[in-house]
Amino acid sequence: MEEPEVSTATRMSSIRHQHVTVALTDDEDNDWDVDPECSICFSAYDNTFKTPKLLECTHTFCLECLARFVAISPEQAGTQITCPLCRQPTSVPEHGTPDLATSQEVLGQLPSDQQQVENVFLDGKRLCYSNPMIPDCICIDIGEHKAEEPQRREERREGCGHRLLRFLGFHGNWKRLVLFIIVLLVVFFVILWPLQCVVISGSMSECFLEQPMMPTTFASPRPTESS
Q: Is Protein biosynthesis there in the keyword field (predicted)?
C-alpha cells in the first residue's frame, strides 16, 4: 500500500513565514535605555554636581550648569536664572541654585546608589560637595576668582595707548620707549626723507648729487693812471 506523499515545500514556506516574538524582561529593557544627561553640557546626571534641577518652566538641567549661569550673569544679580531653551525666568532661592527643586522623575532613572541627593552647597564662586566619609570638601570653580576681578576691571579702563604699549612690550619701560623713538627718527631721516625727495623731484640723481661749488672771483685792482 502506497503512503501519501507529503509536500515539504508547503511546510517549509509556512515555517519560513512564522515570526517569533520574545517578551523582554524589565532588566533587559533597561539595558537599552540611555542614561539621562544634561542638554547643556551633555553629561550624565548624578546626585552631586550634576544633580537634575527643575526650573519653573519644567525644563531640567544639571546643577553645575545652572550655577555657572547665575555666576556669570550680573544683570540679574543672582536672583533669577533664564531658561536656555524657552527664556522663561526662574527665581533663585536664597541659598543659591543647590536649593532649586530636584527633578524626581530624572533622579528615579539613575542607578539606585545615586537616587539620594548629596549635600551640595555654594561657597562664594565655588560649588562644594561634602560627605561624612570624606574629611575635606570637594569643590569646583563656577566663576571668576575674586582676586582676578580688580585686575580685569583695571585692564578694561586702559585706553588704546596703554594697550599698544603693552603689546609692543614698552609698558613700564621708558628707556626702551625712548630708544625706539630715536630709532624711528633715524629711519625717517636716513630712508624716508630721501625717498620723499625722489618722489617729489622724480629723479634720484637730483637728491644725491652734490651741488657744484660756485667759483670765487676776485676783482682785479684797477691800474692807476700815471701823471
A: no
Cα–Cα distance between 122 and 103 in angstroms, integer? 20
Residue type, 40: I
Identify the helix (H) or strand (E) that includes residue 29: helix 26-31
10 domain residue, yes or no: no
Which of 87, 80, 171, 65 lies closest to 180, judged by CA? 171
- 55-83: per-residue pLDDT in tens? 999 999 999 999 998 888 765 667 888 89
172-189 pLDDT tens trace: 566 777 787 888 888 777
Cell numbers at 10, concatenated: 508547503
* 161 within a domain of the structure (yes/no): no
0.85 cut: is pTM over it?
no
The single-letter DSSP state of residue 191 is I
Q: How many CB atoms lie within 10 A of CB 130?
A: 14
Residues in contact with 33: Cβ distance below 8 Å, sequence separation at least 6, in sequence order: 109
Across 83-194, the runs of DSSP E, i.e. the strands, are: 89-91, 119-123, 126-130, 138-141
Q: Determine phi and psi for 128, rounding to 5 degrees.
A: -120, 150
Helix (H, G, I), strand (E, B) or coil at 45: coil
Is residue 75 one of the residues assigned to a domain? yes
